[in-house]
Amino acid sequence: MGKPFSIIAKPIGPICNIDCKYCFYLDKEKLYPEEKSWKMSDAMLENYIRQYIESQPAGLVQFLWQGGEPALLGLSFYEKALELQNKYSNGKYIENAFQTNGILLDDEWCKFFADHDFLVGISIDGPKQLHDYYRVNKKGKSTFDLVLRGIDYLKKHTVRFNTLTVVNRKNSYYPLEVYEFLKEIGSEFMQFIPAVEKKNIEGITIGSTVDLQNLNSIVSDWSVEPDQYGNFLCEIFDSWVKKDVGQYFVQSFDVALESWCGVPPSLCVVAETCGNALAIEHNGDLFSCDHYVFPENLLGNISVVSIGLLAVSEQQEKFGRDKKEKLPGYCLKCEYKFACNGGCPKERFITTPEGEAGLNYLCSGYKKFFEHIGPYMKFMVNELNQKQPPSNVMNLFRTEEIWQNFTRKND
Q1: Widest CA span in the chain
Q2: DSSP collapsed to 3 states, 279-316
Q3: What confidence tens digit (pLDDT) does each residue in 214-264 have?
């Protein structure tokens, strides 16, 4: 049995009921120009579930359902999925996560999630004026109230949920408004994902890994600016570290603490290598990553070659190694390499000050963030080493004297 890996399942491909202006996946329809049904068949669903469970070396198997909008398939699809998971579990424990825009959620959906202990991820970008700036329906109208209605259903049925917020050119300038809003709607676990997408000079969405690295292509006007991404994280961190540690959990902060503790990061974006988070399309095509659903990153179809073999193929192994092996010398000398590892390869399309290719577009923002949080991370690591809770960092703000002593020590 090989190494563990995860798969993001796209059982309805890129089909969605809204039209987010920054969505990189909607254009994947072009990969399958003859497709009409856009639904994973029952036979493919069974094949996928059986193979995925068999390929996992551990006793825990986690399924992640995504899209497009996975709820468009209806409840019966996921009821069938649970039956198949039970059929092929072979003593393994199965968990399910469901990433949705929340618009189709109702009592029936949320009772199902609660009964089967689904973890639901809700995509929401902040208060109404920020969320609706890019996240609109097919007619260009607001989706905000419909998303909040879905969240209300989740809370009514006490479904575990977290929020995924895309940090874009607009909401990146309102970090505290976003953070306080997410707390107000009951999100205790938050992900802040930077929008970084490229267009070629004609404005056409990238269609290959070559386009990703093409210096003649341009960054889309909805992409977050590097320094502003750093500012966004720093401002939220300042609020969190004073009053919210241990009560609200922000993925970027948790992963940073892992790095400062010397623990291999749990998030692929900042891991030294990648390749352990694959994506499967509705027809069984398996790709290296859901950000690399390009023809050249197609590993194969699981009807022809098993998931277990495709996941450890030389093509996929090389994909994972390239993240480390293609890191510019500028990054290798950086004091924050341990916390960043060059970031996601899809964002490594600018040049270093020396002119070497492969620097991450967000580099300056990452540096700003890591420099800012460094002293607090060291404090929390020390608390953990002393068998104390890292939330003790909030004690630094109890009195002005404690705060002044801390800042002098870390100047």
Answers
A1: 68
A2: EECCCCEEECCCCCCCHHHEEEECCCCCHHHHHCCHHH
A3: 555 688 899 999 999 999 999 999 999 999 999 999 999 999 999 999 999
pLDDT of residue 205: 54
How many Cβ atoms from other residues are within 10 Å of residue 401's Cβ? 8
Cβ–Cβ < 8 Å for 10, 280: yes
Instruction: Specify the DSSP class assigned to residue 38.
Output: -
Is there a contact between 238 and 375 (Cβ–Cβ < 8 Å)? Answer: no
Q: Give the per-residue pLDDT at 37.
A: 87
Strand partners, 205: 199
User: For residue 245, what is the DSSP state?
Assistant: B
What pLDDT, on a 0 to 100 scale, did the predictor assign at position 211? 53
User: What does the alpha-carbon distance between residue 294 and residue 138 come to, in Å, rounded to a whole number?
Assistant: 25
- With a cut of 70, list the residues of the chain below it in pLDDT: 1-2, 200-217
CB atoms within 10 A of CB 144: 18
Residue 284 phi/psi, 5-degree rounding, is 95, 0
What's the CA gap between 402 and 357, in Å, rounded? 45
> Contact 256/370 with Cβ under 8 angstroms?
yes
Catalytic residues: 290
pLDDT on residue 401: 81
Q: Which residues contact 203 (CB under 8 A, 6 or more apart)?
A: none
What is the value of pTM for the model shown? 0.94
